[in-house]
Amino acid sequence: MAEVIEAGGWGLLAGSALLVGAVLGYALRIPQWVNASVMAFGAGVLLSAVSFELVEEAYQLAGLAPAAVGTVAGAVAYTAGNVLLARRGARHRKRSGAHQRQPSETQVAGSGLALALGALLDGVPESAVIGVSLVDGGAVSLVTVVAVFISNVPEGLSSSAGMRAAGRGPGYVFGVWGGIAAASTVAAVLGYSVVGGLSPAVIAAVTALAAGAILAMIADTMIPEAFENAHLAIGLITVSGFLVSFSLSHL
User: Fold this and answer.
1) Residue ranges of the chain with pLDDT lower than 50?
2) Confidence (pLDDT) at 137
3) What is the pLDDT of residue 240?
4) How far apart, in Å, are the Cα atoms of 223 and each of 35, 71, 238?
5) How far apart are CA 154 and CA 97, in angstroms?
6) Helix 2-27 and helix 111-132: axis angle, to 10°?
């Protein structure tokens, strides 16, 4: 039970960064280039965590085949869900509104629900792997927690700014991100409790599944927002985030 509570606590901590970012993005008029720069940094952090924590862990547990199959399956599953939600108005859910605006409810009926489901789709894999890292009584991967926390701030910041620009009120915005923070807690608990009794090959596949979904999310939602507003510096900023996460994993 203690491990279950610990998994939930780490998931809540990482997920709470979404709410922090949402408050900043909704309450403040942050310049677009700042949004983009922070998003690029967060993308670099996640790229490093996926490479050196998730895919590498899956490979060490069960070899190349489960790691590769899981990664591809995660990307396919994320892309399929994203395509469905995009048709409902959630295509630009991470956009702050400068070039690609989120639709209002009057423009696309049901887009508010689609945006919320899209945020859930983006956030659950990240939190699930936090719980998985506690399997077999091990310590939580602090690098993964830090990476998810750092990347969640710009995700919530940019998306909530876009929601505000689309005319959605604070009740909706903070309700969505508060709900996602709660869902992150549940995802971490399920990642620990459900995966805990499975074989190493399955654990590796689940870890890689989350890695593939996160990689697809970075390419589809984070990098485009960063490039639109900071394209001349995005490479340098992304590499900086990558190196920060890489350094943390080797302390």
Assistant:
1) none
2) 56
3) 94
4) 12, 19, 9
5) 14
6) 140
Measured CA to CA, the distance from residue 156 to residue 79 in angstroms comes to 20
Q: Which of 186, 194, 217 is nearest to 122 (CA)?
A: 217
Q: What is the pTM of this model?
A: 0.85
Residue at 16: amino acid letter? S
pLDDT of residue 142: 79
Helices 170-195 + 111-132 axis angle, to 10: 30
Dmax (CA) of the chain: 51
Other C-beta atoms closer than 10 Å to the C-beta of 193 total 16
Both structure tokens of 227: 């490039």
Closest CA to 151 of 27, 250, 53: 53
- For residue 241, what are the contacts with CB-CB under 8 A and spacing of at least 6? 40, 41, 42, 43, 44, 45, 47, 48, 150
Virtual torsion, Cα 49, 8, 94, 51, nearest 10 deg:
10
The CA-to-CA distance between both ends of the chain, in Å, stands at 30
Residue 167: the pLDDT is 84
* Paired tokens of 36: 């983009």
Confidence at residue 99, expressed as pLDDT on a 0 to 100 scale: 58
pLDDT tens digit sequence for 98-136? 556 766 666 776 666 777 787 788 888 888 888 887 775
Alpha helices (H) along the chain: 2-27, 32-49, 56-62, 64-85, 111-132, 142-165, 170-195, 200-217, 223-230, 234-249
As given in the structure block, the two tokens for residue 225 are 């927002």
